[in-house]
Each structure stands twice: as structure tokens, then as C-alpha cells.
Design brief:
- By secondary structure, the chain is of the alpha+beta class.
- It folds into three domains: 3-39 and 47-178, Immunoglobulin-like (Sandwich); 189-296, Neutral Protease Domain 2 (Neutral Protease, domain 2), CATH 1.10.390.10; 302-481, no CATH class.
- The chain contains 15 helices and 23 strands.
- It has helices at 3-9, 19-28, 34-37, 213-228, 278-284, 287-293, 305-322, 328-342, 351-361, 364-383, 389-396, 408-417, 421-432, 440-446, 464-472; strands spanning 49-56, 62-70, 76-78, 85-90, 93-94, 97-98, 102-104, 112-119, 122-123, 125-130, 137-138, 146-151, 158-159, 163-165, 168-170, 181-184, 189-195, 198-204, 238-246, 255-261, 266-273, 448-451, 454-457.
- The strands form six sheets. A six-stranded mixed β-sheet has the order 5-4-8-2-1-12. It has a five-stranded mixed β-sheet with strand order 17-18-19-21-20.
- Strand 1 (49-56) and strand 2 form a beta hairpin.
- Bound molecules: zinc ion.
- Zinc ion binds next to helix 7.
Length: 484
């Protein structure tokens, strides 16, 4: 069954306003000229608006895009990624395309429409497209700009993480600055689910695999539930989760690759090992919880990936133990092995510089696990004062949507303002440190005894109840456990 049939025949998602019909409409049934949808010129300046219309072109890898805007002026449209723009025109006149990345406008006139042709670049593999390579953004659009995207039938079936309104996709304002992943092409299967109030758009791309769809779906729903439990109030209201079965080399986890994006809407793409079986998925997959946990926290600049990846890495093990996917002992062992592997990784530069350079240096272990070690230390400290890490972070980031980018200086200021100056101080130290945090004191109080690559748990340790509470998901340690 292809994607469009699937959209037509699946039952509706109970509490949503007919998303299936609406998505189908957006895919196939949008008529009318784009200009006609812009309001007539009023006496006062119109509110800023930006509308895209995407059509297929004579080559299956090309798309024709018309973009119209009003209520603001801009000198330039650019792709946030890639360089696939082939040509561009305004009122039939060719515009100069700058190295495939964008084009300049020569007049400050609105409303106006521009047409361009762009070569579709697969993101990771065919079936995924990074909207940054398709939709050129105007450089000077105000943050309040209302964006609507129409995908005509000739462009083929598409699923985005955006809200759907009267045949148009409506991204969140972060669309103007950042981007997300879409799924396109025939043969994909779309499943819509309400997961604790989050609209899950699960797309399974065509391809051979051993794991049945139902098992994959149940597993990803579970991962989403666990991730959302970290920040129910801040979690995105809808998430596109797309899975591509692929051949994967031995030694990789069953979901061998994951990538979360959030510009305009939350999406995660996963590459599933086509040979992985059900049991491996249940026991060995940490990637889905990790990627989905990212949306429980705000995004930060690349230099602070040690924090954002640290939270996701810490919780990928903790949450799976809480959800019964792995045992508490296994969660601690996996954390321990991660901490141990990070000891000798990296280039010895300050951690925030390491994070900035990790795609060149491959010092991922140090960045991720130094952050996870900080998360553990913070969690233990918070539990001793009756809180816990996810609760403190929920308060620190209260009111911030999942697609707001937060600077480090802002993060530590918020920690201080909420009474956690010690955590702010630790964050500054770890960030500028040239190694990884020393966990020996935390290990001793929690009763974690390193034996090389393995771990023994000492049940007579001072904070053994905190250790148990972390992987059980209890709110906090009882006051009797606070340090003497
Ligand atoms: Zn991550």
C-alpha cells in the first residue's frame, strides 16, 4: 500500500482535527494560484507572510518552487544547506544564482513572487530530504512572518512534521532560522498515533527488514513515551519519526543511526539494520530513546553539545531501565562503560572547543560522556535536595519551546536564578576543563565499584537509595538519605 492510500484508509487520530484527511488534501488536492491567496493590498501594511508552492519538474530529481512574500523586504533568498538551485526568475526575468546557494533580488518591492528550480538532495539516503536544501529562506524576514507551504501532487507524496491547515503545511517560526527532515517518495507507510498527547507521524520507508512494522511501531511509541516523560510540558506536540531499513555493517546497534532536527517542527530519521531482529531491538536499541530525548531539552549552540548530548546520553540508559527495557544493573554497566571509554578520548582541548570541533576530530566519546558524567553528578546533587535532574531542567527552561536555542551564559544564569549555583559552577568548570569529570566520589557514594570494564554494585553504600531511585524514576531520595 503506498503512502497516499495509507493516508486515505487509516483510521483517524481520535483527538486531532481530522489530520488524515487534511494531510491527504495537502499532498494532493491544493488548487489555485498562490498569488490569489495573498490578501488584497490593504491601506495599512500587511502582516509579514511567506508562501511556498512546490511542484514536480520534468526530471524526477528536480522541483519547481514558487515563493511569494509580503509585509517585509528582503535582498536575498538562501538555502540553509546545499547548493542545488539551478535557476531562478522574477516576473519572467532571470535572477543571478549564487553558486547554487541562493539568489539576490534587485528591488525592494512587496508583494512579490520568485520562482526557482532546485535539485533534490537526499539527506542520509533517498526518501529523506532536508528542507534546508529545498526551501530557500529570505534573509530579512521578521520572526513574526506567517509561513505556509503547499506541496502540489506533481511533487509526489511528502510527510513533514509541520501543522496542517487548510491544505497547507504551517511550520513553527523557527523555520526561518533552522530546518528539519521530510519524507518523500512512493511506497512509504504512514502511521498516525497519539502518544500521551504527542501526535506521532511514523513513516516506515520501503525496504527489506526482519522486524515487523507492528513491533517497530510499539518500540518507537515506547521510546517516545519514555523521552516525553522527561519534560511533558515542553515536549513538541507532534514529531515525525521516519525509519529507513538499510544494510548496515556488523557491530552496529539495531538502529544504526539517528538524527533529530527541530527547525519549524520536530523530526527524527532512523536507519534500521535490515538484519536486526525483534530481540536485538528491544535490548540493544538506545538510539531511539537518545534522539527522542533531545526534544525534552532546548537546543544549544554546537559548542555546548557536551551538555545537550550529555543529557541525551545519560537518559538513554536511565530511561530504558525505568521503562523495563534493560535491568538497572545493565543501565549502570552501560553508563560505566561509556564513562570508561571517554577517559582516553579527545584532543585535550577545553570541552566546549572539543564539542565545536568534534566532527573534525571525532572526539564524540569525550564530548558525549563528559556531558553524561556531569548529568549524573548534577542528578545526584539535586536528589539530595529533594529534586532531580529532569525536574530542575524543566524549571530552568520553563516556558521555552523545544525549538528555542539557548546560549551557555543564559543556561548558567538560569541555574543560578533557580538556586542551583553549584551546578552552574560545575558546568563552567567542566566546559573549560581539558579532561573528563572525575566520578570517583560519586561512584563511592552510590556504591558503584569499577572492576576494569565491569562493575560491582555495593548495596551498603551511603546513597544506595539514590542509585536505585535514579533508575526507578522516583521523584527524589527520602530526606533520611541526605548527607550526614
Ligand atoms: Zn544526540
Amino acid at each position: 500500500m503506498n503512502l497516499v492510500d495509507e493516508l486515505n484508509t487509516r483510521t483517524r487520530l481520535g483527538r486531532r482535527k481530522a489530520p488524515l484527511g487534511v494531510i491527504f488534501f495537502a499532498l494532493t488536492a491544493c488548487g489555485g494560484a498562490l498569488e490569489a491567496e495573498l490578501p488584497a493590498a490593504p491601506s495599512s501594511p500587511p502582516p509579514p507572510a511567506l508562501r511556498y508552492e512546490i511542484r514536480g519538474a520534468d526530471d524526477e530529481h528536480l522541483r519547481d518552487v514558487e515563493v511569494c512574500f509580503q509585509g517585509f523586504t528582503t535582498r536575498r533568498f538562501v538555502l540553509l544547506e546545499g547548493d542545488g538551485i539551478v535557476s531562478a526568475t522574477r516576473e519572467g526575468q532571470p535572477l543571478v544564482v549564487e553558486k547554487g546557494k541562493g539568489f539576490a533580488l534587485d528591488a525592494d518591492v512587496t508583494p512579490t513572487c520568485v520562482r526557482y528550480r532546485v535539485r533534490l538532495t537526499p539527506s542520509v539516503r533517498p526518501g529523506f530530504v532536508h528542507d534546508a536544501t529545498l526551501l530557500a529562506r529570505p534573509l530579512d524576514a521578521p520572526a513574526s512572518t506567517a509561513v505556509r507551504i503547499h506541496v502540489r501532487e506533481s511533487a509526489g507524496p511528502v510527510v513533514t512534521p509541520f501543522e496542517v491547515d487548510e491544505g497547507a503545511y504551517v511550520p513553527r517560526p523557527s523555520f526561518l532560522e533552522r530546518s528539519t527532515t521530510w519524507v518523500y517518495g512512493e511506497g512509504a507507510r504512514l502511521l498516525l498515533r497519539d502518544v500521551d498527547g504527542v501526535e506521532l507521524r511514523l513513516v516506515i520507508l520501503p525496504g527489506q527488514k526482519r522486524i515487523p512494522d507492528e513491533v517497530l511501531e510499539a518500540h518507537l511509541v515506547r521510546s517516545l513515551e519514555l523521552a516525553r516523560s522527561l519534560a511533558p510540558a515542553r515536549y513538541p506536540e507532534r514529531v515525525l519519526v521516519a525509519v529507513a531499513p538499510s544494510p548496515v555493517s556488523a557491530g552496529n546497534p539495531p538502529i544504526a543511526f539517528g538524527l533529530a532536527r527541530r527547525g519549524g517542527g520536530a523530526s527524527v530519521l532512523f536507519v534500521l539494520d535490515e538484519d536486526a531482529d525483534e530481540e536485538a531491538l528491544a535490548r540493544e536499541d538506545w538510539v531511539s530513546v537518545h534522539e527522542l530525548a533531545h526534544f525534552a531539552f532546548p537546543a544549544m549552540p554546537r559548542s555546548e553539545a557536551w551538555l545537550t548530548e550529555g543529557w541525551a546520553t545519560y537518559f538513554q540508559e536511565v530511561l530504558r531501565a525505568r521503562g523495563g527495557l534493560i535491568s538497572p544493573e545493565d543501565a549502570w554497566l552501560r553508563l560505566h562503560r561509556g564513562f570508561a571509554k571517554s577517559q582516553h578520548d579527545g584532543t585535550g582541548r577545553p570541552l566546549h572547543e572539543e564539542a565545536l570541533a568534534m566532527y573534525e576530530t571525532y572526539a564524540f566519546k569525550r564530548v558525549y560522556w563528559a556531558g553524561a558524567a556531569t548529568a549524573l553528578e548534577d542528578d545526584v546533587a539535586l536528589r539530595l535536595r529533594g529534586s532531580r535532574l529532569e525536574e530542575a531542567l524543566a524549571r530552568v527552561f520553563e516556558g521555552e519551546p523545544f525549538d528555542r536555542w539557548i546560549e551557555f551564559s543564559d543556561y548558567v544564569a538560569r541555574l543560578e536564578a533557580s538556586g542551583h549555583a553549584d551546578l552552574a559552577e560545575r558546568a563552567r568548570e567542566v566546559r573549560s576543563g581539558t579532561g573528563v569529570p572525575d566520578l570517583s566520589a560519586v561512584y563511592a557514594t552510590l556504591g558503584l565499584e569499577a572492576r576494569g570494564g565491569s562493575l560491582e554494585l555495593d548495596d551498603s553504600a551511603e546513597l544506595v537509595s539514590v542509585r536505585r531511585a535514579i533508575v526507578r524514576g522516583d521523584a527524589s531520595a527520602p530526606s533520611a538519605l541526605r548527607p550526614r
